[in-house]
Amino acid sequence: MSSRTLQVVALSLVALGSCSPQSGSEAVDEPEIARPPDRPLMTPGSVSVVERARLATDGRVERPNDLAVDDEGNLYVLDLAGPPGIVKYDSTGQFVRRMGDVDAESEQPVGALEFALAPWNTLLTVDRSQNKLLTYLTLGTFASSLDIKPGYALDVHPLPEFGEFYLHKWSPERSRAVVVHMRAPADSLATTYEVQIPGGLSVRREARGVNFHTTVDRQGRLYVAFYDGYPVRILEPNGQTVGLVDLDREPIPKSADEIAREVEENLETLRDRAPDIDEMVLVEAAQPDSVLPIIEELIVDPLGRLWVRTNRLETVDTTPFDVFNEAGDYLARVDIPGNVVRATFDRAGVLYVIASGETDTDLQIFAYEVRLEEGQSTSDNST
Question: How many beta carbons lie within 10 A of that of residue 331, not counting itself?
């Protein structure tokens, strides 16, 4: 199988968002951390979640996939329906504009799955199909397009400093996945995180080794977690590891019907994106994991607390988050109503989520006030 074939299939799997790398693929051995499993510092009654609002999109957003809130309370939503674009609403929920529509001077984010709101009034999005970093001004105008070479771009996170960002990318020639600290437009400052993918892996397993969750806090620290579980690594922009957040979690097995459905969905997508590749290669690449990912998303709230969206066997009609304080201690479990697919915080600490409602499967956008009374802690975990 040629390296070009491997690149196309692996990139397709990454774009599916269903790949899950192995914990053994990390380049640095993790030290053992003794921490009680699933025993938060706070009692369950110390946490309350109150819905503040839900966005009436007026039909302007059909397939929301990511969201962000600026310091003025404006909400930005990445909509994958039709030609993808970023839709802006003001703090009252009124439609303002849509960015990314076709015109003579701009590029559409046709292969974007996530975007990032930068502190210098710009929106950064990685277009995976074009392998470009696209930039839009929050006023609605297209600003720039940057080709990502060598390697393939996967995600981007802005840093608090003007003009700096993290770029998560894959370098198939080196068989490595990296997060690079960069300065706009294209100056590489340093490699903050790097994972070597072991040689001799199948197409599917190499693709799984590419993808891991990342987020950044207001201090510019990078958080990295693999789909198959803890720990979460915390790094400074220079690559120094300054913390590990750990918990014991058991993966949830998928049913035979779920696996068969995923195989068909993956095959359909791969056949569409890579029609010239041998069917046997596509069948191998389409095979999903037999368990659900333990970790689905990382976000950091304005107080520096890490929120880890997880899969749990016992949850019904809610989405659980593990919440950790700045010291890395397991603070609380917070259940958000519905099936959450993406979440973010505004500067005031209001949690915005894209989630299915309690009575239907259509995705909606909700805003929640989350109150964590940190004074109430469990006595058996005080040590």
Answer: 23
CATH number at residue 66: 2.120.10
Residue 379 lies in a domain: no
Q: Rounding to the nearest 10 degrees, give the CA dihedral for residues 257, 263, 266, 271.
A: -140
* Residue in 333, 354, 353 with CA at minimum distance from that of residue 345: 353
What radius of gyration do the chain's Cα atoms show? 20
- Alpha helices by DSSP H, listed for 114-169, are none
Give the phi and the psi of residue 257 in degrees, each rounded to 5: -65, -40
Segment (H or E) for 342: strand 339-345
Quick: pLDDT tens for 353-371: 999 866 566 889 999 999 9
Number of H helices, E strands in the chain: 4, 24
Please state, in angstroms and rounded to a whole number, the distance separating the CA atoms of residues 381 and 35. Answer: 10
Q: How far is CA 198 from the centre of its chain?
A: 24
Strand partners, 222: 216, 235
**H/E segment holding residue 158:** strand 152-158
Q: Is residue 246 part of a domain?
A: yes
* pLDDT reported for residue 278: 87
What is the structure's pLDDT at 322? 95
Q: For residue range 164-200, what is the model confidence (pLDDT) as tens digits? A: 999 999 888 888 899 999 987 778 888 999 998 887 7
Contact 99, 78 (CB under 8 A): no
Domain count within the chain: 1
Residue 330 pLDDT more than 90?
yes
List pLDDT tens digits, range 75-100: 999 998 877 889 999 999 999 998 87
How crowded is residue 193: how many other Cβ atoms within 10 Å of its Cβ?
Answer: 23
Find the domain containing 290 and state its range.
Answer: 3-37+55-295
Residue 32 lies in a domain: yes
Cis ω for the linkage preceding 37 (within 30 of 0): no
Residue 344 belongs to a domain: no
CB 319 within 8 A of CB 339: yes
Cα–Cα dist 307/332, whole Å: 10
Amino acid in the structure at residue 82: G
Q: Is the pLDDT of residue 22 over 50?
A: no
Instruction: Give the residue among 365, 273, 383 at the shortest CA–CA distance from 52.
Output: 365
pLDDT at residue 321, rounded to an integer: 95
